[in-house]
Amino acid sequence: MMLPEIGEAGQKQLIAASVLIVGLGGLGSPASLYLTGAGVGRIGLCDPDTVSVSNLQRQTLYTVSDVSHRKTDAAYNRLSALSPHTTFEQWHDGLTERNAEKIIAGYDIVVDCCDNHATRYLIDDICGRLGIPWVYGSIGAFDGRVSIFMPGGLRYSDLYPERKTLSSLPPSSGGVIGPLPGIIGAIEASETIKTICGFGETLAGRLLAINIKDLSINILEL
């Protein structure tokens, strides 16, 4: 509340807001921690997976004691300890063709922290139909990308029109340097907070691209 761009009015907006986080891995870990810490009033935790040892290098929500537990449960335990006043909703089955519209319709904004194109196209379809903004984030090796798609504006399917080809690809399985998802997930949280509170310039209509191998940062007009 010390920031004049947010203040008491913005904090009240955060308390009144609802955010769905799709994917509780490398991107979802920092995004959920920062959104919880910011005081978002209601957060949906959506992921069908369990925690594995290989996740711990970059998925900072979890510890060794969480291995083999559902990510939604482990995330809830960590986040509710950070903000007991936040309401958390757990979606253990993840986002599917059958449940996506029902789940997404209950939130003000969606944060994409998943690892595959098919889910992003599904988010894009439902959010476009319902008029709900969503924040896009993706990572691979040393590269990360962030944007936000607003109702009535540019769509993910406009940015990546090769839907059939990309949707057929398996979830990303390549390596990624641990700090990268922390950077991208934190930016996703920042874009979400800016959108809820209505300050600053978001990445709507733009794409942020980062390569931390050479620390190049570019913002492309779309």
Characterization of this structure:
The chain is of the alpha/beta class. The chain has a single domain, classed as Rossmann fold (3-Layer(aba) Sandwich). The protein is built from 8 helices and 8 strands. An 8-stranded mixed β-sheet has the order 3-2-1-4-5-6-7-8, sandwiched between helices. Strand 5 and strand 6 form a beta hairpin. Helix 2 packs parallel to helix 3 and helix 2 runs parallel beside helix 8. The termini are far apart.
Provide a short characterization of the protein structure.
The protein has about 220 residues and is an alpha/beta fold. It has a single domain (about 5-220), classed as Rossmann fold. About 35% of the residues lie in helices and about 20% in strands.
Give the arrangement of secondary structure elements:
Blueprint: H1 7-16, E1 18-22, H2 28-38, E2 42-46, H3 71-82, E3 87-91, H4 100-104, E4 109-112, H5 117-130, E5 134-140, E6 143-149, H6 156-159, H7 163-167, H8 179-197, E7 206-211, E8 216-221
Parallel strand pairs: 1-2, 1-4, 2-3, 4-5
Antiparallel strand pairs: 5-6, 6-7, 7-8
Helix pairs in contact: 2-3, 2-8
CATH superfamily membership:
NAD(P)-binding Rossmann-like Domain
**What is the CA-based Rg, rounded?**
16 Å
Gap between N and C termini, in Å? 33 Å
For the largest beta-sheet, the strand count, sense and barrel status come to:
8 strands, mixed
Mean pLDDT: 95
pLDDT < 50 runs, ≥5 residues: none
The neighbouring-strand order within the major sheet is 3-2-1-4-5-6-7-8
CATH topology: Rossmann fold
CATH architecture: 3-Layer(aba) Sandwich
Helical segment tally?
8
β-sheet strand percentage: 15-25%
Number of strand elements: 8
How many structural domains does the protein architecture include?
1
CATH uppermost class: Alpha Beta
Which class best fits the helix and strand makeup?
A: alpha/beta
Roughly how much helix do the residues carry, as a percent range?
25-40%
